[in-house]
Structure formats: C-alpha cells, structure tokens
Amino acid sequence: MLYDYNCPRSPMLYKMTKQRTAILSFLRSQHAHAHPSAEEIYTAVKKAIPSMSLGTVYRNLSFLRDKGIIEEFSFGKDKKMRYEAFVETHAHFTCEKCGTVEDVRFARPDLFIAACGKTLDHEIHKLNISCKGICRNCMKASS
Ligand SMILES: [Zn+2]
Ligand SMILES: [Zn+2]
Prior knowledge:
The protein has helices at about 20-30, 40-50, 55-65, 110-120, 135-140; strands spanning about 70-75, 80-85, 90-95, 100-105, 130-135.
C-alpha cells in the first residue's frame, strides 16, 4: 500500500478499509441532500457491515475529514455534526422548522474568497455560508 502524505486529497493512496469504503460510498450516494449525522451513517452502514461500531464510524469520519475527502459541519437545528462527500465550496440552507439541510451552489466562490482576503489582508482558507429560513415543504404545510 502506498502512502503519499504530500497529496492529502488523493483517497486512492490511503488504505481504504472495508468500513471506510462503506462509509464513503454511503456519503457519496446521497451527498446532494441528506447531510447525515454520525448516528445516521452508523445506522445505514451497519446494515451492510453488522460488526461496525459507532466508535469505528467516528474514527473513520475523523480520518476522512482530516484528509479532506469529506466535510464536517454543524449548523442544523439539532447542532449535531453532519457529514458530506461534496467538498466543493458551497452554501447550506437550513430549515428553521424541520431542520432539513440543503446544498446551495453559487458561481465563483473563489472570487468571493479572493475579495475577502484582499479586503482583510488575510489569507482565507475556507468559506462557510449558511442560509436559514423555511423550506418549501414547511411553507406548503402551513398554508
Ligand atoms: Zn422545513
Ligand atoms: Zn452540503
């Protein structure tokens, strides 16, 4: 097995255990909408690998996060840590009623980051944009 510490974004070069692969493919299968918590990932992956423990899920999520393969964040209603395999810069919408988290893509986040860096005279590494409101389903339900 090859290890390349100079290339943190290359998952192929890390040892992908059965557990790690299962967690990553689960996150990749529904990255667009779900933003699951560690407990939700555990429940789903345990179906395929019954011997999987919650501790193993947490350890593997930390590993994948540290390698930049997945993203970890918490700004949902319940303040739980949530995970996704969609690592391009994007914003998140959170519904104040049901807690649904949805991705919001926008054009050229790199330009916004560059402008912020220039204004502040700092080096910006990461951009987090969070939108809050009422989702379309909750609006329909209350009308
Ligand atoms: Zn809602
Ligand atoms: Zn997202």
